[in-house]
Amino acid sequence: MPIQLSPNSLNLFLECPHCFWLEKKKGIKRPQPYPYALNMAVDVLLKEEFDNFRAKNESHPLLIAHNIKAHLFPNQSLLNQWRSNFEGIRYYDEEVDATIFGAVDDVLEFEDGKLAPLDYKSTGSTVPNVYDRFQLQMDTYTFLLEKNGFLTPRKGYLAFYIVDKKNGFGDRLPFRKEIHEIDTDPSDVYSLFKDAVSILRRIAPPPHSQDCQYGKWQKGAANF
Q1: Tens-place pLDDT, residues 30-49
Q2: What is the domain extent for residue 54?
Q3: In total, how many domains does the chain have?
């Protein structure tokens, strides 16, 4: 079966090689958390909103407000492919005989033609956090853009839509909007990808990481 890994897969590999092996090799996933249906709905609405500005060849107000000198990537057809969970932007590496891919939310294009990933994040936290998994996500998207022949500024952008809890509900969910620019470094993505693929080609799984809560549960359950 062809090996295809996404930023989420690589993040799982970093968290726990054992859980990663079980999911990608045997199809045994960790128990799923409660589905974030509201977050998914917001994501759909944001794609529609950004696409409307793209269709009108207008800059999104969030980019203007934060003085980001870029416009929305104009190729809607290609962006739709890159957004697809089944297609995404991808790179097949002949040496390891595996594919790395990612479904990007959006892409910014700068005046010099360089492209940078833009990801939408909705949160109920007062202060948005740039988690390690977000950094890996942006690093991977930068890697994929470059492997597909595009130049990048080695930057990624996170558009945070933060629930504003101060002004009440009033039948509408108010958001405060921020955009965070982060430096991206794709130099470690390929080695991480190779290491993850090599784990999947093992006959037996590696041990759980020391901090893996699922491994601790499994060990505790085995004692009964």
Answers
A1: 887 766 666 788 889 899 99
A2: 35-202
A3: 1
